[in-house]
Amino acid sequence: MRIAFDHQAFCLQKTGGISRYFVRVAQELAYAQQQVGVFAPLYRNQYLNDLDKSYIHGRGIQNYPPHCADAMVSLNGFVARSLIIKWQPDVVHETYFSKRASGTQICPSILTVFDMIPELGIQSPPPSEYELKQSAKYAAALRADHVICISECTRQDLIEQFNISPEKVSTIHLGCDAVVNVKREALTHQSAPRPYLLYVGLRGGYKNFERLLQAVACSKSLRDDFDVVAFGGGSFNTAELALIQRLNFAPNQIRQNSGSDQSLSEAYSAATAFVYPSIYEGFGLPPLEAMAHSCPVVSSNTSSMPEVIGDAAEYFDPLSLDDIASAIERVVLSNALTQSLIERGRLRVQRYTWKACAEQHLQRYEFLAQRATSI
What we know:
Strand content: 15-25%
CATH class of the largest domain: Alpha Beta
Structural class: alpha/beta
Oligomer: single chain
Shape: elongated
Number of domains: 2
Distance between the termini: 18 Å
CATH topology of the largest domain: Rossmann fold
Order of helices and strands: EHHEEHEEHHHEHEEHHEHEHEHEHEHHH
Strand order of the largest sheet: 3-2-1-4-5-6-7
CATH architecture of the largest domain: 3-Layer(aba) Sandwich
Radius of gyration: 22 Å
Number of strands: 13
């Protein structure tokens, strides 16, 4: 069947989880002999370099002119819609949220919702009912013929917040790329000076990094014997540096690193444990990446985490410093629990493949296309 992906994610993001997801799904659909079209006339997304150029209706550029990003996205949308209509797809997958449809009314459309963080007020005050109903996300979800959510937790949040019929919304879990899988045994010659706990990604607000530091600081065994490495998310800001100093950590005990996928893979593989203190996630890929690198996972017990991680983590209440510290201690001070989590993680992560993810997408596409032809 002919499956069109619109311009939005590829014009809005140079890199990022949303655009990576659509590229990986498109790749797997192409491997399955489906006709795939990505309609992004002037895109700036790097992941599209991994997709066969024959599937891309557009041209990549380094960046948009300063202060012109919004205008460029709108212009791309205008041109992309004409190209999509001419291509005559069986279904259009809108890759982000817009008040304007990317296809025609007779062509079924599908949308993916990744989380409901703004609507739930996780990071800032929630919108009023008027603001919610004026949002592009609300308009796109109501307009779509079907909505995919990346976890059952997100699905339930979407149904409740937008008052959408449950029959219109389904759950499809993401796939997990193992990044660059490095065996732990191969890292003995380049190990860190001390064992370390690994944190990955952005750190502000609901990501709860500051509580992780406070929990480590209040545990004598963790403070005395472990460093904390934060990979990605940018350099520590002024508030984070002040907190580190106020908690009296030793020099360089709390470090921020960044680098390539290879560097991230090595960080996972050499860590004593991966800690995921986030208060809310729509899905949460880093714990699965850690499992793919035989790194034991210690995680928050809220939102989608138990659904995605299952029995392959030691859980804690992310609002309790004592609970965070105790859960980490149970793992890093027990070889038996560490090995058990590693084994459970290896089994758990095998569930999350991009092939399976794409197959479930194709089922939804085929259902919508068949329904459209029968009307």
